[in-house]
Write a structure and sequence with these properties.
It is built from no helices and eleven strands. It has about 120 residues and is mostly beta strands.
């Protein structure tokens, strides 16, 4: 499995922005389907955004128009640009990745990074 490390979380005021990064330790990064999930206190982990090896992208309805997922295969890095943040976006954000042939059941996960949106 690939090792994933997130960074970029923190405390931000409502309406602010943050960019999360996820670096993967693999020489096959370009083949990976990469995604961001989040888990708020007392809630289940939910998909935020996903980007595949062909740059197909999908977002949760709650973040469409505010969040942007992207990847830089040369840097083995996936990004999540979060704009117009709301208190409801407060959660631990996790990076995940899997090879298409293995399927999501074989996903690797990062340790997570805390995002807190509060005034």
């Amino acid at each position: 499995q690939v090792q994933l490390v997130e960074s970029g979380g923190g405390l931000v005021q409502p309406g602010g922005s943050l960019r999360l990064s996820c670096v993967a330790s693999t020489n096959m990064f370009s083949r990976y389907v990469m995604g961001w999930y989040r888990q708020a206190p007392g809630k289940q982990r939910e998909l935020v955004a996903i980007i595949n090896d062909g740059f197909y992208i999908n977002y949760a309805d709650s973040v469409k128009g505010r969040f942007t997922i992207s990847r830089d295969n040369a840097k083995n890095t996936t990004y999540l640009q979060m704009n117009r943040l709301e208190p409801e976006d407060t959660a631990v954000y996790y990076c995940t990745g899997y090879l298409p042939l293995s399927g999501p059941a074989r996903s690797s996960w990062g340790p997570g990074t805390q995002v807190t949106v509060s005034s």
